[in-house]
Amino acid sequence: MSFCALLFSLAFASASQIPLTVHDRATEDQYHHFEPPIRHVAVIGAGPAGLQYAAVLRDEGFDVRLLDRAPGPGGNWLSTSAVPIKASFPNRAIKNGSYTPDVPDKLPLVQEYFEGDGGLSLEYRWREHWNPSPVWEHLTSNSAPFFTSLPETQYPADIEWALPQSAIRRHVRSYASAKGLNANDEESLHVTSYSTRVEYIHKAPSSHKWTLYLRRLSLTDNTRSQLRAEWWSEEVDAIVVAVGYDSTHVPNIPGLIEWAGRFPEQVYHSREYRRPEKLAGKNVLIIGASVSASEIARDLAPHVRSFSVSIRDHERTTYMQRRSLRRLPSNISHIPEIASFGTIPDDATGIQELDLHLLNGTTIRGFDEIILATGFVRSLPFLADYHNSTIKGREEPEVDVHPIITDGSHLRSLYWTGHYIPDPTLAFKVGRPWTLGTYHALLLARTWKGKARLPNEKLRWEGYEGPGGPSVFDGGFGTLGEEGLRFSLSFSTSSAVDMVLDSPPRHIALNRKLLVHLNTEALKFGGRLVAPWPVEGREKFVYYAEQAWEAGYTRSENFTRYENVPESEWNSEVPDVTWIPEEW
Ligand SMILES: Cc1cc2nc3c(=O)[nH]c(=O)nc-3n(C[C@H](O)[C@H](O)[C@H](O)COP(=O)(O)OP(=O)(O)OC[C@H]3O[C@@H](n4cnc5c(N)ncnc54)[C@H](O)[C@@H]3O)c2cc1C
Ligand SMILES: NC(=O)c1ccc[n+]([C@@H]2O[C@H](COP(=O)([O-])OP(=O)(O)OC[C@H]3O[C@@H](n4cnc5c(N)ncnc54)[C@H](OP(=O)(O)O)[C@@H]3O)[C@@H](O)[C@H]2O)c1
Ligand SMILES: *[C@@H]1O[C@H](CO)[C@@H](O)[C@H](O)[C@H]1NC(C)=O
Ligand SMILES: *[C@@H]1O[C@H](CO)[C@@H](O)[C@H](O)[C@H]1NC(C)=O
Ligand SMILES: *[C@@H]1O[C@H](CO)[C@@H](O)[C@H](O)[C@H]1NC(C)=O
Ligand SMILES: *[C@@H]1O[C@H](CO)[C@@H](O)[C@H](O)[C@H]1NC(C)=O
Ligand SMILES: *[C@@H]1O[C@H](CO)[C@@H](O)[C@H](O)[C@H]1NC(C)=O
């Protein structure tokens, strides 16, 4: 058994008891000390999460660099008519990442590209560099304004619950502007760098500094006839990663790759979907049964000639899965899972000639377009030093370097505070940025300033929650039940699915835990106290969830229970030295 697996099992065995090693522990140093002190911090990603990290860290006195490959702030909500480059069929290997990190031998370097250089158009280079958002024109939110909003930023007073994507776009950009972090804010030019893709981050074993290898693309003239790429590196003391999904998942259905390769305009991922008019009068097949599938189907309904959706046959266990099924238009044909795509006739002129073999033994044909609404993965190519794709599922083998990325379905080796356990100068987003973002940003700032304690590495491993970790879309409202389960990606591999179903609701109180921790540390070391979500906000949330998600989703007793979650159920791993009894 590895050292960390041993600690892991010990931690589980004695989760709520006073550890046997109290005496040693009381004398050893239980906390991490950041030395030399953290001054310079890079934030990767300027979505709703990254903007809050940058604003809070800067206001707390750090020298901040905010980097995003996109040309402005907004992240997922920087919606655009620019279409992401075609998803890879098959999926790129996770270890290869969603792009191949481009780090020249000698830095800095500048290179100019003209149309057609290297067989690529300038427009292709531009889209490949920034990976335009997957959000389509008529997308509306599946979360209401009061819990899809950033601090000190308003939506129009009479805005609807299902927010048009453009309203979220404006909201996030006005937060960025209010914080002086927008693309054209001259006062922040030393802070922000847009159109800047992080290619690689590295820390030498002997060093206290991280080196970021960066690549920025810019148009060199107004005629758009030339692109300039610049590569350079920067050194920082700490890094926050807030990058979201960066790659697509397509299933491994026999024959799919061949058809998608031959007729790329007719077989594509939901990330590339923009507007329904383009599909007017067509016969369309959507593969997948989750949010992208149902919402694209609703957008298409009035335009297409016919439409079908291929749904795998299994029980839908989360409210969002059930909601997606309910929201499919009533006149869409449901077809079973696809077993294989038939062989391509040599003289095929389009997918209209495709024979689709279904799992139930029937063969169908006659589609004009196929949209794969099959989800996303995290590949984070710039973390090449922390990838290990030989590790499968939930395995936790003994390793030299604790990986962060394995199969793309989750992040691992992270403490609940988002810190990479072996080196807490690297931290990741935790929880839902709208509701937890500023709390979490404050926690990172105070931890790196030495004003909030972080346990030492041994204790961090003891408190480790396992693969999956806290960096998921959850814990936002302090609700229990499904909201507390990790929101993992739907994968065709059974391992990732198991990961969702068999995980205990570990993050039930992430929101509460962050709050309690921040305030406990502030009372001890100084700093403003933070207020919890107002009860009224939580009541609105209950009402919304009942109406818009699922009846019986949550009730006031769930919140009452939330208020009273016993410590043993928070799964809090912050060692509370003050309660360890003295020898007497
Ligand atoms: C289609 C779709 C619809 C959604 N709808 C909802 C909804 O209705 N309600 C809701 O609450 N959530 C929704 N979400 C979830 C959404 O991810 C969150 O709302 C939110 O955007 C997450 O914020 P973030 O800052 O963590 O990440 P993001 O908003 O994804 O921002 C990440 C940023 O990191 C940048 N980045 C990535 N890699 C690099 C790199 N190597 N170098 C530099 N920059 C990089 C990206 O360019 C991006 O700007 C939706 C997601 C999708 C895909
Ligand atoms: N605001 C909005 O309205 C909106 C719109 C789009 C997306 N989003 C958000 O974006 C995120 C991603 O959503 P998503 O829907 O793109 O991805 P997703 O939730 O990961 O769903 C992927 C879907 O692909 C299906 N799938 C995979 N392989 C398949 C196969 N071989 N045959 C048939 N189906 C297959 C899965 O099936 P199983 O169900 O069988 O596992 C699942 O339904 C979510 O957070 C979502 O909330 C929000
Ligand atoms: C991964 O990258 C290597 C080297 O660039 C390449 O040979 C291989 O085909 C790639 N694999 C996938 C699945 O993308
Ligand atoms: C499906 O029903 C919707 C709503 O009644 C209607 O607008 C649309 O034309 C129908 N679409 C198809 C393809 O039958
Ligand atoms: C298989 O599914 C197709 C599409 O839904 C349907 O038309 C057909 O009747 C089904 N065949 C069997 C044997 O159930
Ligand atoms: C990657 O994981 C394997 C086990 O699957 C391990 O043997 C190997 O040492 C790991 N690589 C690194 C760099 O830690
Ligand atoms: C809310 O509380 C009820 C009654 O205690 C319980 O049955 C239900 O599962 C809870 N819902 C959630 C989402 O936790």
Give a description of the structure.
This protein is an alpha/beta fold. The chain has three domains: 1-30 and 476-584, no CATH class; 36-102 and 119-214 and 231-245 and 378-472, FAD/NAD(P)-binding domain; 251-374, FAD/NAD(P)-binding domain, CATH 3.50.50.60. 26% of the residues lie in helices and 15% in strands. It is built from 15 helices and 19 strands. Strands 4-2-1-8-19 form a five-stranded parallel sheet, with helices on one face. It has a five-stranded parallel sheet with strand order 10-17-11-12-13, with helices on one face. Strands 3-7-6-5 form a four-stranded antiparallel sheet. α3 packs parallel to α9. It binds flavin-adenine dinucleotide (FAD), NADP nicotinamide-adenine-dinucleotide phosphate and 2-acetamido-2-deoxy-beta-D-glucopyranose (5 copies).
Give the topology, please.
Elements: H1 3-13, H2 22-27, E1 40-44, H3 48-59, E2 63-67, E3 109-114, H4 122-130, H5 165-178, E4 192-193, E5 196-202, E6 210-219, E7 226-236, E8 238-241, E9 247-248, H6 256-262, E10 267-269, E11 283-287, H7 291-300, E12 306-310, H8 319-327, E13 333-335, E14 338-341, E15 356-358, E16 363-364, E17 369-372, E18 376-377, E19 426-428, H9 433-449, H10 457-462, H11 494-501, H12 510-525, H13 535-549, H14 556-563, H15 567-570
Parallel strand pairs: 1-2, 1-8, 2-4, 8-19, 10-17, 11-12, 11-17, 12-13
Antiparallel strand pairs: 3-7, 5-6, 6-7, 9-18, 14-15, 15-16
Helix pairs in contact: 3-9, 7-8, 9-12
Bound molecules: flavin-adenine dinucleotide, NADP nicotinamide-adenine-dinucleotide phosphate and 2-acetamido-2-deoxy-beta-D-glucopyranose (NAG) (5 copies).
One 2-acetamido-2-deoxy-beta-D-glucopyranose (NAG) binds at residues 92-93, 96.
